[in-house]
Amino acid sequence: MSIAARTTAVGLGGEGAAPSVPHELSELAQKRVIVGYGFWIFLLSDIVMFSTFFAAYAVLVNETAGGPSGRDLFHLDVVAFETAFLLLSSFACGVASIGARAHRDTMYYGAMAVTALLGAGFLFLEVHEFVGMIGIGAGPQRSAFLSAFFTLVGCHGLHVTLGLMWLLTMMAQVFAKGYRPDILRRVLCFALFWHTLDIIWVAIFTVVYLLGVVV
Amino acid sequence: MSDTDARLHLHHASDHAPGDEPVSGHEIAEGLLGYIVGLFLAALITAVAFFLVGTSLVWQPSIPVALLVLAVAQMGVHLVFFLHITTGPDNYNNVLALAFGVLIVGLIIVGSMWIMTNMNHNMMPMNMMHM
Q1: Residues of B whose CB is below 8 A from A104
Q2: Overall number of domains in chain A
């Protein structure tokens, strides 16, 4: 029995396994694969939750109750910066996960710090936008459109906030405990989470901001 | 079957966790290249989307559809280059889970919009009666 047989993964891995490999062993997957897959399922359920907010937004987007619409409120230059920050932080996060797998301190900590700074920059712009809107009386209580807007975009912002806390935790955990397999699995999950937030942002800047200004 | 054969066979059969580089991906440069290509493509698509909104060069009614297509394309780029969800045999489970997620998301969004548009339409005579 080779080590490779023991690391054959769940499900489809069994079909491809050599006939000499006992069935139960061929179904064993690497823990990293199982953890990543489980977290991927969680992320998909998170995306399903976001889809309900998107559906609510799409239904309520024209119900402005005589108040301001997206065209009056959105500043696409700010949104462009937010988008750039989040995209670059997603890239930096990818670099960090390579650094973690390769056990390179400079690469891991440096890229994680850049990820955090860009994420914080995104949050700053978003909070600034929200405060400005509430300041001119376009808060979530103004109309159904604005309630849906603040729920959808705010929920994404909340995810980014939690992601930032997780990011700092992962820097601290690698610092304190090193590149242990269990810590690396957490880094993998964090990276998946951060990349997924960027995917959701793609939907938000398209559906909410760009279409809000065009349509 | 020799041990090398088994390894070769199993190497192709084993799954990847989403977000994982391929097994050979300990080479840093190789991994970086994937992220750089992804960043470049995503930035390009984003730039086109923001450009479309501000331009009058394009037939205006086509812009919303174009924006949605670009968004789907960019999500694809993110999935492939950042999350490493590919069509390879090691990714069946991840892709199947994704397909199920996309199905549910589609049902929720399209279903909600369809039903609510229909209800709004049915409410029209009532509004007119009040007027």
Answers
A1: 28
A2: 1
pLDDT band at B29 (very low <50, low <70, confident <90, very high): confident
End-to-end CA distance of chain A: 63
Side chain identity at B41, as an amino acid letter? Answer: L
Q: What is the pLDDT of residue B87?
A: 79
**Chain A touched by B88 (CB under 8 Å):** no
Q: Which residues of B touch A40 (CB under 8 A)?
A: 17-19, 94, 97-98
**Buried b / exposed e across A149-175, counting CB within 10 Å, b at 16+?**
bbbbbeebbebbeebbeebeebbebbe
Note the pLDDT of residue B123: 81
Residue A8 lies in a domain: no
Distance CA A107, CA A95 (A): 7
The packing angle between helices A144-177 and A181-204, to 10°, is 160
- Which pLDDT score, from 0 to 100, does residue B126 have? 57
Would an 8 Å CB–CB cutoff place B38 in contact with chain A? yes
Q: Is A28 on the interface with B (CB under 8 A)?
A: no
| Amino acid letter for position A106 | T
pLDDT the model gives residue A3: 39
Residue A124: which residues within 8 A CB-CB, separation 6 or more? none
| CB nearest B97 (choices: A44, A207, A211) | A44
Identify the CATH number of the domain in which residue A52 sits: 1.20.120.80
What is the domain range of residue A195? 30-214
| Residue B51, both tokens | 């450009």
Instruction: Please work out, in degrees rounded to the nearest 5, the angle formed at the alpha carbon of residue A175 by the alpha carbons of A184 and A84.
Output: 70
- Whether A97 is in a domain gets the answer yes
CB pairs under 8 A between A and B: 200
- pLDDT higher than 90, residue A56: yes
pLDDT in tens, B36-95: 999 999 999 999 999 999 888 888 889 999 999 999 999 999 999 999 988 778 888 999
